[in-house]
Design goal:
Length: 194
């Protein structure tokens, strides 16, 4: 099994986010699940990689060349793919993965998450998306997505595209229990005039 993790590069965030990341990374390594991530050496990305490597797990970084050139690449990650653009990086992050896991993060994490949600809505991506809502970090996002449905910008069934969980121990069960998503999702991607 292989999972992609979107997460922060900031090293100044609260320790609770590092703790949750470490718990998740330890669980993934113990279950022999390969981790694919953005390749960074700082913040949650760096802590994720450090933990997976220390636990003997498998991890792959994907990063544009320009980030490598300013020494953002994690030095302990031996399996790296370097791309020409951020767009290529994002494509490789979600291609051929068994699930997406979003940890707390800033605009980069949000952009990656929204892209894969949009692709799932269009039937271009059909795998589970799990959002780790540590200390309700993503509570406002969850409310906004539910409002999108309430205000009829999305169909109620679109709420099945992702799962919010509060603790790292809930991530793997959420992946296993997520309803199947069809490539035919394009047929109900938008609400039409009734």
């Amino acid at each position: 099994m292989k999972v992609t993790i979107y997460c922060a590069s900031s090293a100044q965030i609260h320790q609770k986010y590092f703790y949750a990341t470490e718990l998740l990374a330890t669980t993934l390594a113990a279950n022999k699940i390969k981790v694919v991530f953005g390749g960074g050496a700082e913040g949650l990305m760096g802590h994720l990689a450090n933990t997976v490597v220390e636990q003997g797990g498998e991890i792959q970084g994907i990063m544009p060349h320009f980030m490598k050139e300013i020494e953002w690449a994690h030095p302990k990650v031996m399996d790296f793919i370097f791309t020409d653009t951020m767009s290529e990086r994002k494509t490789l992050l979600y291609r051929d993965t068994d699930a997406i896991i979003a940890l707390p993060g800033g605009t980069g994490t949000l952009e990656e998450l929204f892209e894969v949600i949009t692709l799932k809505r269009l039937g271009e991506f059909t795998r589970p998306i799990v959002i780790l809502n540590t200390d309700n970090y993503y509570g406002p996002l969850q409310e906004m997505l539910e409002r999108c449905v309430d205000e009829k910008f999305m169909n109620p069934q679109h709420l099945d595209m992702w799962s919010f969980v509060d603790h790292p121990s809930e991530v793997l069960p959420a992946i296993e229990n997520m309803p199947d998503w069809s490539a035919d999702a394009l047929n109900y991607a938008t609400l039409k005039q009734s």
